[in-house]
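[09:14] KT: can someone run the structure on this one? pasting the chain below
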Amino acid sequence: MASTSSFDIVSDFDRQELVNALDQARREINSRYDLKDSKTEIDMGDDTLTITTDSKFTLQSVHTVIQTKAAKREISLKIFDFGTVESASGGRVRQEVKLRRGIDQDLAKKISKYIRDEYKKVQTSIQGDSVRVTSKSRDELQDIIQLLRQEDWPAALQFTNYR
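[09:31] RB: done, structure tokens below
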């Protein structure tokens, strides 16, 4: 009997790299002339960021700084889900940014269907917030990874547990 090979499709990010990117962003914000006096605060929770600053204009600049630092540390910008801008005390603005982790059911179903439409002999199974792909051919699995990387998915996809 031929052995089967598999890999998991997950959507995750390196939390420590994000912490480092936010530290760099805070340093740049405190040293930049146009943002120095804005008293910008970036607070990181378990799965959210809270940005508090002077105005919507400075908030856009803070977004740019955070995204630039994250991209330099190879963190996908798709993990950031920017919420609505709220008014805070003292004429300031606040925004919650959710950090996306895991593949939701709808996206998992789309990925699974996409793979099965392209490769008939491959099995896919949705396991919580990841998708397991199983095949007898390792070459086929490599092709699937390349195929998925070419598409633009709404979540950052990583491929783990390749066996």
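[09:33] KT: thanks! The radius of gyration is 20 Å.
[09:34] RB: yep, looked fine to me
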